[in-house]
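Much of what follows relies on a compact textual record of a protein's fold. With that in mind, consider the following protein and its fold in token form.
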Amino acid sequence: MVGFAPGGGVDVTARIVAAALGEHWGTSVIVDNRTGAGGSIATEITAKANPDGYTILFCQIGSHAITPARFRKLPYDHIKDFAPVSMVGSTPNVFYVHPSMPTKTLPEFIAYAKANPGKVSFGSSGVGASPHLSIELFKSMTGIDIVHVPYKGASVVLAEVMGGQMQSGVGNLPGGPLAAIKAGKVRALGVTSARRNKQVPDLPTFAEGGVPGYDVSSWYGVCAPGKVPRPLIMKMNADLVKLLHGPGLQKRLEDQGIDVTPSTPEQFAAHIAAETTKWKKVVSEAGLVRDRL
């Protein structure tokens, strides 16, 4: 189960992992995109699925940290209703503009936005997803006023910016954004992670671009329904970790700009808990906390 639209970073990464697992298991691993509500639709379906191991979720920062931090009541418990299998890896979001924008660097963009408050718009894959909130954090740390325009998927945002209908956009680096940057179809201004990404080594981080201390990385992993038997969870973990350490899958993911970080189920559970705490503060400061979906 994937909670975001085809073509975006989550989907592209999930399909790479699904293909490797399918080859290893000798069967088809089908990617089922159930989009909407910050990934919570696919998350709810997985939480309520038969706990036989045949339905698993490509869980990520949106479904297992940001959405639980945003909503006081959800139709599932992202901790109790899931059994983390392993983390897959992390990747930065990337902020990019149409080449016609008079800003070639992040400091220039910050200065331009301050000189034109409320006149610059940025697109994202939806309200409350990691790309959106990474720019809300950017806004709060720089004091700029730019307008958020939510779309139904990261690929639509990219198409709008490439076509000049939207001034700027933000999304996970894997997939379309990485290809568009390398092709010169958009001008990337910075990555949100603490370190530069080796797929775009000349692209500075937000911290290097005038926002000291800024650090946001999107992350991906595999989660199963909470009642899946422990031996099955450990079997899936062993298989996935073996593949992630192998040169084939690791290279395919790294070529997309993903820092591969396999883990134990316990390490992944601790990461999810820490990220939920972190994003509760961010969404509260951004005024995005809601009672329910």
About this structure: The mean pLDDT is 94. Residues 265-285 form the longest helix (21 residues). The CA atoms of residues 71 and 290 lie 5 Å apart.
